[in-house]
Amino acid sequence: MFRALCRRLSAVRKYSTTTAEYPFSKSVTASQPVLPPTDALRKGKGLMQHLSKTLVDPEKRHMVDVLFSRRHPERLPPGSVLTAYTGQAPFQFSGVLIAIRRRGPSTSFTLRNIVQRMGVEMQFFVNSPDLKRVEVIQRAGGGGGRQGRRMRRAKLFYLRDSPEKMTAISAGVRG
Amino acid sequence: MISLKGTLNVIDNSGALLVECVNVLKHKVNHGYGGVGDEIVCVVKRARPIPASALASTTAVKVKKGDVRRAVIVRTKKSFPRPDGRIVSFDDNAAVLLNNKKEMLGTRINGPVSAELRTRGWGKIVSLAPKVL
Fold it and tell me: Does the ipTM surpass 0.85?
């Protein structure tokens, strides 16, 4: 049954570049064509490339390929203020993006916030089903001035020792 | 990761300010490291002066420097993973003092506590905390 599905999906892919059809339901669409395992893949050749294409959920592709990528023009620079919405408590956490760990499907980012005079850091994994969405409250490097200057570091761990720099970043943020 | 000689801030109103860990009460562990939700035996290193009303009373809890007390760790600087995949760390180590029956000595908590306390069975502390992260 799986082989028949693969054959039908690969047939659709040959003739059209639109989304592949799921033969058993009209409401379900595969936004990414299923990559059936090739002979080379079965031997283990090109396994990591295959995994980096298929392990990421289609809903999270935007996060991995755009928001937390290395060179995309719309990527989030460190120093941005984000809110991460999750399925488990605490259901949302806002903070300054101080680190991005780029590992393809295992990409993660760390947010730092000061809650009731106590600094808290939370590391979220982008591909986790628990992470629902990420909202950008303020992008770093926006304009000139003290608040909008581009951060000259990829990892902003120096913010742990200077609360005044944290307040400078969050001074422009409302709420 | 709190073990012997690790210092923790006390975030309740029991009177103690800083405690030093002496022993981690954790079964089935060879290393003496404690995390959030673990009970420790600690020595009070710094305490607030005991108010006159408490000195006069016989039932009030009098916490002074040099006391050996029990405490539960509520925040750690060391990052710990959560079951949902997140990794959380705080800026300091904090504890809440307890008596031998695992009841809190203080009546209020100031500052956030870790949400792992809820899963480890410290519901009373979680309900008193102003923020659970």
Answer: yes
